[in-house]
Amino acid sequence: MIKFPIYLDNHSTTPVDPKVVEFMLPFFTEVFGNPSSKSHEFGWKADAAVENSRKLVARLINAESRNIIFTSGATESVNLAIKGAAEMYSSRGNHIITTTIEHEAVLDSCKSLEKKGFDVTYLDVDNFGIVNPNDIKNSVTERTILVSVMYANNEIGTIQPLSEIGKICKSKHILFHTDATQAVGKIPVDVLSDRIDLLSFSSHKIYGPKGVGALYMKSRIPKIRIAPQIDGGLQERGLRAGTLNVPGIAGFGKACEIAKSELIAETNRINSLKNMLYNGIITGLNGVKLNGHPKRRIANNLNLSFEGINSDSLILAMKEVAVSTGSACSSETGETSHVLKAINIDEDLKHSAIRFGIGRFNNEEEIIYTINKVIEKVNFLRQISLKSEKGEYAEV
Ligand SMILES: *Cc1c(COP(=O)(O)O)cnc(C)c1O
Hints:
With 396 residues, the protein is of the alpha/beta class. The chain contains 13 helices and 12 strands. Helix content is 41%, strand content 13%.
């Protein structure tokens, strides 16, 4: 039996895995101490839980515990990485390179730095949403201190050539940050082989609780330093003040542990659900276009434009299926997605894009229901607009 509405918006957030919830519970009432309290067992136990989580979080990206700084989410991690590095290395230069398809966390951090005198180059991407590493190489100047390129895009799922970009940054001695929020837990992320200096990700995108995230910071050769953006205590080695969110961090660790052990099997399962959804829709409908790269994309993402359809009308027409037009942040403002603009799709196809985000808890039944619903509603909406073109609804 299907439970309605069907949740297919797993890029915006994911439900917390029940195993994670169960693991978190003792940290609200029993192990409730402040990990900074060094004088009693309550503090020690909380501290031990945080350090255990730190290990699990690090492991998922092939890092070590000391590389992990806990934050309130990817937005804070990104702010800390970009503003913290810019502030720390401002005597060396004031130039930052990023792309036009980044998440608002990156774009707005860069805009805020521009107001403070930094120069930011926003590189274009190709029609699949991929940035050309040569463009990065060619944009580097003597004043460049940081490159920030997202690992996988949250709207169209495109995966960037991270290791090539990492190589370029390394050879030019420039810091490399990646917003890996949509990649971690979905594809194997390895900070060492990709030569990543700073990496941001979030718990609530991988079936952990909201309000927790991590910033990975390389610790050796060369040693990286960033300026803290929140002052008020020596937590997280002075890089992020404030009492740690112990239940959240415990849940984040558990979520990372599950993500690591399930990664391959889960990706395969989600990929076949995605293929089933895509094939079902294109078999039943004409005029459907895939946005993003056909192969270099995260398994759970399907972004489709439906010719002649306004995406908001389609979303309204199929309330039983929770999908979105793009990022939750831009849907609030009602503006056309900056990502779809950047990949140059036809003007009317921009307004007819739907993002399907498949997750751990979706099943075949839900996908079949969704296929049929999409076909039915797209046909219905196309018929209405045909009739209104012919003037059959002239009185409306
Ligand atoms: C969701 C998301 C963020 C923001 O993460 P929060 O933890 O909600 O702050 C940043 N970047 C990308 C690519 C995302 O998908």
